[in-house]
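Duplicate of #3305? Posting structure anyway:
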């Protein structure tokens, strides 16, 4: 029951469409009708400007990060408050069960961002929210992936290419880290599933990159529409 509550909170938190809200508040537009028609931070930056783009990025990042913090708190609290200890079927004091529970919470937060109930299940691509999940669970691989993101974005000016490079780097680093004994295989499963989901959500970007039609990122206060 506690895990279900944590999953529900995680999904609803992930489903908050910051880009859509900012579009309505700042310019009274539906961000989905402009640019790439995506509610993510990159499109917010293109359409609304740098500051709204940063706000959207930070908000989406913390959706993933806080979903895990809330979930972790609920799971640990359930162990402390149960009279006979944890339910034997969901013994959250068991490291692997605890990790699997956090993995599920993290994945659901990203699914909430990509398929938000508040926007008829049509959301963003999950990169920022996934970043929040990864930083919470795996900070070292996240730092490495972030450095790759910054490097690729600075050189190519393609946010999509930088995102794909970062998520692939993250997967490789986590795979190498687990090779000695796969002690943290639940986290490797998380990495694999999220990487696959984010790459899938970037399939149109991949097609445009191959055709040389992908838009490069530019910094400006607002579009002249």
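Output from current build:
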């Amino acid at each position: 029951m506690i895990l279900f509550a944590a999953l529900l909170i995680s999904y609803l938190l992930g489903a908050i469409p910051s880009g859509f809200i900012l579009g309505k508040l700042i310019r009274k537009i539906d961000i989905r009708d402009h640019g790439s028609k995506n509610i993510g931070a990159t499109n917010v930056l293109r359409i609304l400007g740098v500051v709204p783009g940063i706000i959207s990025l930070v908000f989406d990042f913390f959706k993933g990060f806080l979903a895990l913090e809330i979930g972790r708190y609920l799971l640990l609290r359930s162990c402390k408050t149960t009279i006979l200890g944890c339910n034997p079927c969901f013994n959250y004091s068991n490291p692997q069960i605890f990790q699997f529970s956090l993995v599920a919470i993290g994945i659901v937060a990203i699914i909430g961002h990509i398929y938000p109930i508040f926007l008829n299940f049509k959301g963003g691509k999950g990169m920022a929210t996934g970043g929040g999940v990864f930083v919470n669970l795996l900070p070292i691989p996240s730092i490495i992936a972030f450095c790759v993101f910054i490097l690729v974005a600075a050189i190519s000016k393609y946010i999509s290419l930088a995102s794909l490079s970062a998520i692939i780097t993250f997967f490789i680093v986590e795979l190498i880290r687990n090779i000695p004994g796969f002690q943290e295989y639940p986290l490797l499963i998380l990495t694999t599933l999220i990487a696959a989901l984010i790459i899938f959500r970037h399939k149109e970007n991949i097609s445009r990159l191959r055709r040389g039609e992908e838009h490069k990122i530019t910094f400006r206060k607002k579009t002249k529409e």
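Confirmed duplicate; merging threads. The CA atoms of residues 15 and 120 lie 10 Å apart. The first helix runs from residue 2 to 14.
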